[in-house]
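Anyone up for a design puzzle?
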């Protein structure tokens, strides 16, 4: 994507985010912060690879490939997702939670605990 299109895309994203945040706030729906983390691009790349891998697994099933091979590939996708979650969690701890603790934001800490419980089910 050239720089002009990339800038337009970033501006559209910011505008959409502002609109989404206003909508969520107006309707009393909790919404997390919307800043960019230092590892955002790495996380997006990891997710894209995992999506591609999962699509390959779907094709394996469609083609009737060996169930053991499918299970092994599913395990690889799950591992990739778990590792992506670790990157997100570490980034969140280093930035968001440091700020939340400094501000005495117990709700942010509780939200993180709930997210960890769901992630690690």
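Challenge accepted. My sequence:
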């Amino acid at each position: 994507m050239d720089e002009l299109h990339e800038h337009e895309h970033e501006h559209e994203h910011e505008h959409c985010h502002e609109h989404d945040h206003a909508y969520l706030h107006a309707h009393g729906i909790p919404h997390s912060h919307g800043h960019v983390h230092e590892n955002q691009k790495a996380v997006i790349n990891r997710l894209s690879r995992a999506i591609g891998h999962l699509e390959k697994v779907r094709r394996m099933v469609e083609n009737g490939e060996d169930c053991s091979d499918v299970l092994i590939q599913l395990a690889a996708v799950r591992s990739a997702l778990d590792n992506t979650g670790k990157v997100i969690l570490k980034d969140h701890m280093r930035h968001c939670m440091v700020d939340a603790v400094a501000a005495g934001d117990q709700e942010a800490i509780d939200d993180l605990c709930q997210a960890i419980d769901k992630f690690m089910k």
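A detail worth pointing out: The CA atoms of residues 32 and 108 lie 9 Å apart.
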